[in-house]
Amino acid sequence: MDPGFDGDRTHGDGVAYARERDADDPLARFRDRFDVPGEIYLDGNSLGPISDAAERSLDRAVEEWRTLGIKGWTDAERPWFRYGESLGEDLAPLVGADPDEVVVANSTTVNIHTLIGTFLDAMEDRPPGILANELDFPTDHYAIRAQLRQRGYDPDDHFHLVESRDGRTIAEADVIDALEEREIGLVFMPSVLYRSGQLLDVERIAEAAHEHDALVGFDLAHSVGVVPHDLSSHGVDFAVWCSYKYLNAGPGAIAGLYVDERHHGKTPALSGWWGHEKETQFELRETYTPADSAGAWQIGTVPVMSAAPLAGALEIVHEAGIETIRAKSLALTSYLISLVDDKLADLQCSVATPRTPEERGGHVAITHPDAERVSKTLRDRGLVVDFRPPNVIRVCPAPLYTRFEDVWEFAEQLREILADREYESVETDDTVS
């Protein structure tokens, strides 16, 4: 861990301690590069704020459209024709991959569809059973079930879920047991569970899957940009992620995917002209020839304006350093957990996120019986968090723009809201942020 973020220094008395931590923060200079909405923004695991670099790269793309028009595909600073591959090269170090194993393309759900479909088609002698877990973000399950149905498999027979022991976490041992007990050809898991913030052991799951002759993929939506990954060395077959959370590339920003080089040359389940080999793409042949790289899993023309902010956003991540980002993230979440224990436990709050740093992603799940109204009360005060049914307040102290003092202030205001029962007068609606 970076010496600027001593993981044991989680307890301090009052705001002076938080300010001391901020004074020693090697990432403090990045805060001013973001326009952070609200008094305190703790929802970066849903949508990161805009940075000066992301805004510049978007403005640059707009100006290239203005001045170059169609020539932007070849003459832009980053030629749009290879935008997906170029940004994939920038992303590759964050996920531990070679440049040709990563591309930005499509949306996360579309990428799940095309990659699950591709590897279902490639199972050959493997059984068509797919293993996921009951705490996944629902879109993963929608896509998996749809891809099974399209191949004539009944999801009720071929889609298997690892159950949670506590309703919050998934034990890797239970994943391994499921591999031993069922016919599984493909494992698809999140790196971080979206409600509790548990970080799964990617290496252990990948190793277990391969020992049972199963392929393995991961949804990195809640870890890319805040947790370093090493997909290639861990033998992961494929992965997907979004770029609007910790990568701060903007709402609806283009997603990313990884395909290990040993699978290059396979025909994607959702083939499109943008995944054609670049050398002959504009010959517009009737026969589809996939690129011999992760670029084959692009489908339609790259959405330049949805991709452009990512170029600048990645500049900031690389300048800060993913290891330093991870170190500060763990320090912030450790501090937050200690404040919940010290200040909020007597007011019906508890931590639902694993306390062991190696098992924790970038956010902390705080439970409270009236979490929805408490979350809304916090937002009304300018403290932006989000609610997940039935009783979780998700709090994300994103390292690039969140201070230790912000975490201290959050805990102070939450204690005041709970002690005064201020939330009891708040009306809720059916909308979940």
From TrEMBL:
Pathway: Amino-acid degradation; L-kynurenine degradation; L-alanine and anthranilate from L-kynurenine: step 1/1; Cofactor biosynthesis; NAD(+) biosynthesis; quinolinate from L-kynurenine: step 2/3. Its cofactor is pyridoxal 5'-phosphate. SUPFAM superfamilies: PLP-dependent transferases (SSF53383). It catalyses: 3-hydroxy-L-kynurenine + H2O = 3-hydroxyanthranilate + L-alanine + H(+); L-kynurenine + H2O = anthranilate + L-alanine + H(+). Keywords: Hydrolase, Pyridine nucleotide biosynthesis, Pyridoxal phosphate. The keyword Cell membrane does not apply. It holds the Pfam family KYNU_C. GO terms for biological process: anthranilate metabolic process; L-kynurenine catabolic process; L-tryptophan catabolic process to kynurenine; NAD+ biosynthetic process. The keyword Metal-binding does not apply. GO terms for molecular function: kynureninase activity; pyridoxal phosphate binding. One of its GO terms (cellular component) is cytoplasm. Its EC number is 3.7.1.3. It comes from the Archaea. InterPro entries: Kynureninase, PyrdxlP-dep_Trfase, PyrdxlP-dep_Trfase_major, PyrdxlP-dep_Trfase_small. Belongs to the kynureninase family. Catalyzes the cleavage of L-kynurenine (L-Kyn) and L-3-hydroxykynurenine (L-3OHKyn) into anthranilic acid (AA) and 3-hydroxyanthranilic acid (3-OHAA), respectively. Homodimer. This is Kynureninase. The lineage of its organism: Archaea, Methanobacteriati, Methanobacteriota, Stenosarchaea group, Halobacteria.
